[in-house]
Amino acid sequence: MATQKKLTIKDASFVNKKTGITMTYLIISRNDEDVYCFIDADKEAAWEKAKEYVKSNSFSETDGFTQTNLIVAGDTIKFSESVFAGSFRNARFIGERTNVAKVLKESYGSAKGQHTFTLKITESVGVDPIEKGSTIRRKGRNLYRNKARRLVWDNEDARDSVAAEKHARGDKSRAEQAGRRAEKYGL
């Protein structure tokens, strides 16, 4: 039985001390859990953004995704990420988007051993959504920090074997990195 989504919108404002401009922010909550925030100097514009988000939000509460702390190639994951505008040095937060993507591959960088995922977007909603079918890369630390969720596989034993292979490559990468550090610092 599908659970009903109870969406509520909280409205508040604050004055930006630096500019003196009154900003309106709206927090959309689903079943008492904050899921989205809009900030704008124009109150009507903030409300329009919030209404558009609610209208375009196509994710259901019973979508079959489960919390995970292990992502492997072949998983279909759902994750939220912050969206920023402006330059890298002077970026400003403009909202969040939620993406559903298929994990095409995952790798450990040769230089620093950073875990990176290559993802193919199947659905994206929120601020500045990513085009369906686009291929993106995300660091593992960011996906895990943002509480990525995954669909359960039909054959979880096959997923376990993919995970074991992934862990073996991760162990090898960490050992190589430790060797490079020892060589660099003469340990």
Main features:
187 residues, alpha+beta, six-stranded antiparallel sheet, three-stranded antiparallel sheet, 41% strand
Shape: globular
Mean pLDDT: 79
Strand content: 35-45%
Question: In order across it, which strands form the biggest sheet?
Answer: 4-9-5-6-7-8
Tell how many strands the DSSP assignment holds.
9
What is the terminal separation in angstroms?
60 Å
- How many discrete domains? 2
Question: Radius of gyration over alpha carbons?
Answer: 20 Å
Q: Which regions are unreliable across 5 or more consecutive residues at pLDDT < 50? A: 58-62
User: Which structural class best describes the helix and strand composition?
Assistant: alpha+beta
Count of runs of 4 or more consecutive helical residues: 3
Order of H and E elements: EEEHEEEEEHEH
Largest sheet: 6 strands, antiparallel
